[in-house]
Structures are given as C-alpha cells and as structure tokens.
Amino acid sequence: MNKDVIEVQVRAVLPLEGSFAVFLGNETKVFVIYIDESVGTAISMFMRGVSKERPLTHDLVGHLLLAFGAKVERVVINNINGSVFHARLIISAENELQTTRKVIELDARPSDSIAMAVQQSAPIFVAKSVWDTVEDVSDTLAQIEKKGLEVQQAAEAAAEEDEDDEDEDEDDIEEFSDEDINTIAGLEPGKSEDEYDDGFGGDDDDEEGEEWKKADG
Which long-range contacts link 17-24 to residues 24+ away (Cβ below 8 Å)? Predict the structure, then answer.
C-alpha cells in the first residue's frame, strides 16, 4: 500500500437537517464529510446491520459485483477541491471468464464509496494531501459522544426508576388486607361493594380509566 495514504474508519454517522455528517478518522485525527440524506441513511443501516425487505441501490450494486465475482478492495479519498471531496473505488474481479485477476479503479463520490466499503467490510484510506488539509474535529466528536452517552444513561436510569416504582406499588398492595382495602374504598365493615349504588370498577370508570460541513461531490 502506498505510504502516501492513511487508513481511517467510520467513527460516526450523524443525521442533520436534510443531510448526514460522516466522521472519518483514527486515533490521531478525525474529519467530517457532509453527504446527502439517502446515502447517509444507507451507511447507517449497513453499520447497524439493519435488514431490509427489498435491496436498495447499494445492496443492488453489491449483488451485481458478487454475481460477476468482483468485490470492493478498498476506497481512497484522494482529493479535495475547495469544499468538494473526491474518491476512487478500487474493485477486483476474478471469475471463470478470465484467467487472471483484474483490478478496476473508478471515480466515485466519497459517500457512495464509503457506503460500499462499509457494506463489504473493505478498508478506507485518505490521501496524505487530503489528510493534511482537513480540519481535525476530534474534540467535537468527543463532545457529541459524551452527550449521547449521558442521554443514554439518563434514559436507562429513568427506566430503572419506573421499574422500582412499579415494584413498590405491587409491594404496597400486597401489604393491605381485605379489610384495609374496604376501608380505603369507603366500604363499611361487613358490607360488600355490590351494596353501594356507585360501586368502584364500574363501566363508567373503565371508559375514563459549527460549521464544519463539507460538501460531497
């Protein structure tokens, strides 16, 4: 592999208003590419292993490659022109129709390239010239991840608290005797609820009861 490229991983895929932000990087640096909503959704689904009822566009491309004995070898984000990123999709093919392995390099959008790489577990590389140009947003991603973790922990704590409250309510009910329940309901000792004109549990009660966006080209 050329020493002028750096391997990166998809660190996060975050939905924005009408678009997605894809965070790429490693332990030393993270940068972001701004992509359209449809491809961002596809990448997110591939990363989470979400099954689909019918194949979407990138699924179809993957099936076509497989049918011809081809696969995505790697993706290289090789250039940035202003705010527009460029990428190369490297595909290899080997089947009964050809005696030697064939490697094809295609010009492609980074978003589509990343989607195919994630789908086929292929490595993603960034040209060093691009790597040295992009802004490091590691701190931004760390803050987003921290906030997400806090929200998740708060939700789990709230769920546990609800479960504890339900358990306490059940314990309270078990501690009451039949006589206690009659007293709480306003029933006189020795008098059944059926003898009251407005017995509880009737039909009436049931009815109430920064601008770090980068364009993807």
Answer: 19/213, 20/44, 21/212, 21/213, 22/111, 22/114, 23/137, 23/141, 24/77, 24/114, 24/124, 24/126
Residues 128-167: pLDDT tens digits?
999 999 999 999 999 988 888 888 888 888 888 777 666 5
Residue by residue, DSSP assigns 133-149 as TSPP-HHHHHHHHHHHH
Distance CA 74, CA 67 (A): 19
- What residues are paired with 74 via a beta bridge? 90
Taking the C-alpha atoms of 48, 79, 92 and 69 in order, what is their torsion angle to the nearest 10 degrees?
40
Contact predicate 80/32, CB 8 Å = no
What is the Cα Rg of the chain in Å? Answer: 30
Residue 81's DSSP bridge partners are 84
Could you tell me the pTM of the whole model?
0.68
Residue type, 120: Q
Integer Cα distance of 162 and 125 in angstroms: 47
Residue 17 near residue 47 (C-beta atoms within 8 A): no
If one counts every other C-beta atom within 10 angstroms of the C-beta of residue 76, the result is 23
- Write out pLDDT tens, residues 63-110: 999 988 899 999 999 999 988 999 999 999 887 766 678 899 999 999
Query: For residue 94, which amino acid is it?
Result: E
